Structure formats: C-alpha cells, structure tokens
Amino acid sequence: GKGASSVSGSTDRDVVRMLSRRLGEELDPLSRDLAEELLKADAAWVQQGAEAAHVVEDMRLTIDGLAAGLSSGSLPDTGARGAARLAAWAAEEAVPWEAVAGAASRCNRLLLDRVLGWLAAEDWDDPAAAAGAMRLIVVRLAEFAREIEAAMAASYERTASRLVVRRDGHHQREQIDDLLAGRSVKADELPFELRNDHLAVIAWGEGHAVALRKIAGALDAELTIEPRRDHDWAWLHGSPQLPADHKQVIRAFAVPDGCFLAFGGRGSGADGFVTSHRQALRAARVAAVNGATVTLFGDVALEAFALADEPLARRFVDRQLGELADDKPRTA
Questions:
Q1: Does 323 have pLDDT greater than 80?
Q2: pTM of the model
Q3: Cβ-contact 200, 264 below 8 angstroms
C-alpha cells in the first residue's frame, strides 16, 4: 500500500522518520477525520463545527506537533497549541469537559489505530523488530497524549473560569435582588468585584446562554447569569474595565436565529450595576416591540423613554437636540 517499504534492519530512528513522513503525507485527510471525531462530543458543538474551519486547522497544527515530537523525542512547545485552542472553544460553546475529554480519547485511539495500521502494512523481515517499533510508538504517542490532554484541561478551565462566575443558587439571587433594590450588601460576598465595570444584559430565546458566553469571551469579561422565569438577567464584568470598543464588538456579534440580547450602558460600582440593569430592561422592552436581535440602550434610549414616559421622552429630545428638536418651520 501507499508508503509501504522494506524495514529490514531498521533502527527505531528509521521507523520514527518513516512515521513522521507519513503523518506529513496524510496530514489533510487525517486532520479532517480527527476533527469529525472530536465534533461528536456534543450535538450543539457539531452544529457550530460545521461552520468552523479552524477545527481542522487546529488539528493540522496538533498533528504537525506530533510529527515533530516523534522526530525529536519530546513534544515541542507548540505541539499542544492547536488542541488547547479547541478546548478553549469548547468552553466558550459550553460543551461539558467530560464530553471534550471523551472526544480527545477517541481521537487518540483513532490516531493510534491509523499509525499502527501504517506500521502493520510495512514489509517487516523481523517480527521482533516490528513488535519493538510498535511498542516504541505506542509509548511515545501515549506520553504526548497525556501532555496534550493536560494542556487542553488547563485551557478549558482557564477559559471557563474567565467566562462564568459560578452561581451560588438562592444566596446569589438574594444578594443581587438586594443590590438592585438599593439595600446594603457585603461586597466581599458577591460573586464579582463590585468596584469594576459592569454591563447588564437581558437575554432570552434560542441559544442565548451560549451567546452570552461568546460575547464574554470576545470582551475578555467575566459573566454572571441570574436565571429568571422567561429570560436571564446577566452582567458582563470588567477587570477592572471593559474594553473601550465593547459596543462595536457587541454590534458585530453574530446572534443565532431566535436569540435576543438587550444591553444597558456600561457603569461601575453599585450605582453602575443597578443603572445598567435598568437600562437593559428598557432596551429589552424596545426589542420586544421591534424584534431586534441585539439592542443597546444607547441606540434606543429615545424609544425606551417613549415606551415608559412620553413627557420624559420629550424632555430628553429637548436636552439632547436643543433647537434641532423644534419642528416649527424656520425662515432662512
């Protein structure tokens, strides 16, 4: 078959060199096969993966690292970079770590089966040499697999901890309700740093929790989610500040069909936390009327005021536009 050659008298180095060459020759189909196996980890991830060309590219990077590691005897620093990026993506998609780890194990088995198949297809004159070569490859690939899985686990945990502030059930709800009502709270018991920037979101519809995590990742922000009956209250937290271009990032975000996100303005401290939430609620009312998938309070402030208080809306126009708000005809 392809790549078959006589390996009579081959040294371990010759076998490793042959396998490194085969990995290079089979790079594209092997990357696609491994990517397909990985994406079986989670149904929602499969749907996202159909549009994610970077999955195959990250697999290519991982295989390149394995080939270099086989040649040198140790996995290079870049060897786990592709797999680590895939693990971070899984965390952003809210794929459970158990599913990711299981998929990684299946990928390892698929790769080992493929490599052992190549070795078995070679023209071995000495069965003992064949067995020795296979033992060498199994041991080395197992070592690399452990290193890669450790890198994936660290990347997943790092991303997940950045994206989600862990909820503490009923206690968190009481704290947030007290904070929103203006009652005293112990800042050190809150699951976020109150002094930092906050950007409130009202989220509902299909896939809104995943969308919130993705936006948090894009802004490098922590995320608090407080589930309510028909929607979620959420806050994006800076460390300490949110990016200055956060509005552009949000407007450019591709929201899935059936998902709705309404944002307040950015604020800091207790007052900013509360004000941003109230603005997000008003923005959500506007979104419920006009059907916009992404709504920023600053973009719909006039409509929000109009829905809540028409006289207040008129005063807002007068203050913001001055004479330009006067619709009386003027002479040149």
A1: no
A2: 0.54
A3: yes
